[in-house]
Amino acid sequence: MRGLYYSLNQFLKERFGERVQKVPLDAGFTCPNRDGSKGRGGCLYCNAYGSGTGAFREGLSIREQMLRGMEHMARRYGARKFLAYFQAFSNTYGPLEVLRARYEEALVDERVVGFCVGTRPDCVDEAVAGVLAEFKNRDLMVWVELGLQSVHNETLARINRGHTFEDFVKALEVLKARGLLVCVHIIFGLPGEWHLEMLETVKTLARLPIDGIKFHELYVVRGSGMERLYREGRYQPLTQGEYADLVAEAIAHLPPKVVIQRLTGDPRPEELVAPDWARDKAGTRRLIEETMLNRGLYQGKYLE
Ligand code: SF4
């Protein structure tokens, strides 16, 4: 039975008949918004880690990361099936043969039922989609996780994303034409945005053929451009309650078939500057669910 929203666990259980666990990987990719081809400073909220662990640079191969992650998750959750998750930086940014080889390396044995690649919309084209489709056509599940953050081009420029909403729409079309699954990442609390703009992002996405979405609160990390703004008193993060209200409301605008892959961000504790509540993932999740229950909200409510 469906709960308040369509979770990733539920989606994977329906597809594979059992729990499937994602194994995060740092596959040694870089980012065009950091290496100089688009920009050098990166997005305003990102620091030099680019959500990565640095494992690849420390000499841990993709295969080793995968085997270790699978062992850990088998012990912790009893999982027997896995999806490789290429998480750090832009995982479709590189020569096609390098992409192909790195994706292949993650398929360590038949327990790996597919993979997810996190990337930027401007790092997706026909050729990249073609490589990803080769894997999908081998009966593997392939998700592409596109970082969009906001549909508003003024916001994207303000946070130095280096791409536009139109770039995102183009990437989405190319990926959907190959039958690939697309999950969009968005951020609530970006500088210069209010509730109206944030919900406008979700309403716009609700009209597009996306398969999944990840919600994140904007948190300030050490070494990012946001840290400077925050320390100068020019940025105030959302409160936990404001964020929970926004996500609860946003979910009600989304079609029931869109998989809600994530409700909150996941900062490294040692990097987090603010807000403090970003450490409390379980509490935020609980608050979102309570808000939905109290307000009679559920996924797709506003589309009925
Ligand atoms: S957030 Fe992603 S796209 Fe932006 S600079 Fe960091 S790694 Fe690059």
Shape: globular
Q: What percentage of the residues does DSSP assign to strands (E)?
A: 15-25%
Can you tell me the CATH superfamily?
A: Aldolase class I
Task: Indicate how many domains the architecture comprises.
Answer: 1
Helix content: 25-40%
Number of extended strands: 9
Strand order of the largest sheet: 1-2-3-4-5-6-8
> What sequence of helices (H) and strands (E) makes up the elements?
HEHEHEHEHHEHEEHHEEH
* Uncertain residue segments: none
Separation, N- and C-terminal Cα atoms: 19 Å
Domain Radical SAM core: 15-257
Keywords: 4Fe-4S, Iron, Iron-sulfur, Metal-binding, S-adenosyl-L-methionine
Organism: Thermosulfurimonas dismutans
Protein name: Putative Fe-S oxidoreductase
Structural write-up:
The protein has a single domain, classed as TIM Barrel, CATH 3.20.20.70. Strands 1-2-3-4-5-6-8 form a seven-stranded parallel beta sheet, with helices on both faces. Strands 7-9 form a two-stranded antiparallel ribbon. The two termini are 19 Å apart. It is built from ten helices and nine strands. The chain has helices at 8-16, 62-77, 96-106, 126-136, 153-158, 165-177, 195-206, 225-231, 240-253, 281-294; strands at residues 20-25, 81-86, 112-119, 141-149, 181-188, 212-217, 220-221, 259-262, 272-274. α7 packs parallel to α9 (240-253) and α9 packs across α10 (281-294). The radius of gyration is 18 Å and the shape is globular. Residues 31, 33-34, 42-43, 46, 50, 89-90, 120, 147 line the site of iron/sulfur cluster. The site of iron/sulfur cluster has 11 residues, from loops. InterPro entries: ELP3, Elp3/MiaA/NifB-like_rSAM, Radical_SAM_C, rSAM, rSAM_sf, YhcC-like. Its cofactor is [4Fe-4S] cluster.
